[in-house]
Amino acid sequence: METALNIDVAALDAPHRRALEEIVGQELATHQRLIISVIEIGPTPATAQPAQSLDDWTTVYDGLAEEEIEAIDEIAKTRADLSRPLP
């Protein structure tokens, strides 16, 4: 769906004119015409999640010091509440 709107600035009332000027970022003169187009775009590749495998997770701690890994592990255990007594 593609639509275009041609708006004569002189035909706008003050509140609508101010709103459009805010969007455009400048004052509009009465001899100007504002053209607004609406076009459809396809989905962006960034929205798609890449496939993950076990191999992807084997390097998650690469480059971290032992203390950093321990700190992450403590946070994970706290959030998972694995410190509760087992039956």
> What integer value in Å does the Rg equal?
28 Å
User: How would you characterize the largest beta sheet?
Assistant: 2 strands, antiparallel
What is the string of SSEs from the N terminus onward?
Answer: EHEHH
- Approximate strand percentage: 5-15%
Parts with pLDDT < 50 across at least 5 consecutive residues: none
How many helices? The count is 3
Mean pLDDT: 82
Distance between the termini: 61 Å
Shape, per Cα inertia axes: elongated
Oligomer status: single chain
The spatial strand order of the largest sheet comes to 1-2
Relative helix content? 25-40%
Number of DSSP-assigned strands: 2
Output the structural class. alpha+beta
Describe the model.
With 87 residues, the chain is an alpha+beta fold. The chain has helices at 14-24, 54-57, 66-80; strands at 3-8, 33-38. It has a domain at 3-38. The chain is 34% helix and 14% strand. The protein has a two-stranded antiparallel ribbon. The model has no long low-confidence stretch (mean pLDDT 82).
Write the layout of secondary structure elements.
Elements: E1 3-8, H1 14-24, E2 33-38, H2 54-57, H3 66-80
Antiparallel strand pairs: 1-2
Key traits:
14% strand, alpha+beta, 3 helices, 2 strands, 87 residues, elongated, two-stranded antiparallel sheet
How would you briefly describe this protein structure?
With 87 residues, the protein is an alpha+beta fold.
